[in-house]
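Service request form, structural biology core

Requester: graduate student, group of Dr. S.
Request type: structure prediction, single chain
Budget code: on file
Notes: please return the result as structure tokens.

Sequence provided:
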Amino acid sequence: MLSETLNPALRAQTQSTQPMLKLSNLSLSYGEIKALKGVNLEVKRGECVSLIGSNGAGKTSLLKAITKLCSSRFDALQFEGRDLTSLASSDLVGLGLVMVPEGRGVFSRMTVLENLLMGAYVREDAQVVQEDVERMMALFPRLKERVSHLAGHLSGGEQQMLSMARALMARPRMMLLDEPSMGLSPIMVDKIFEVIGQLRSEGMTILLVEQNAMRALEMADRAYVMDSGLITLEGPAQSLLNNPSVQAAYLGLGE
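Core staff response, request fulfilled:
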């Protein structure tokens, strides 16, 4: 089962009233361009939270700020109560916070197996790492068929599978997913969301940035809407699915 690929403590977790991830008044600029303008967001333990918005709204910038891939200003940026201010991006995997980036970000000149092992670089339990490799092959059979292939030779959907599997090899407690369905065929989109659904049901805390707003809201417990660097709406995902303004702007249902 997929649950066996996760930190064993994860399976006993339930949603908590305390945020696992919390950011307050987060701002980020690229030169004169203000990409984020005082964003407040939190994700509780065991939640799946979706972040939707149009292209250029600041969604990817938000994930990059959380994972310390770019400089930002904030009143609070915390993971499991720990202040992330002084930490580098490379420190976060060891804390259990992992991002699956937009565009997959696989190591194109390394094999599928080598990519998976890179996902486990912070771990020292070599035997269990090998067991997790086998579980990833069971979860993503296409990767098993291509285990010795260079990642750069995989299709877009296969690379997305590899990117997610590599992240799972770190046994994270929280995953940030940036546009996991972008550019994929409908069949591959279904597979990716099937895996996300499994992770959600087994207790993984997830922050999902996704262009397919309908699928993202259907998957989530709560959601945020971002526009021009600001959070403009938040609430239970089902409420946003039924919100006429969200339907008109992001779901193509008309107001």
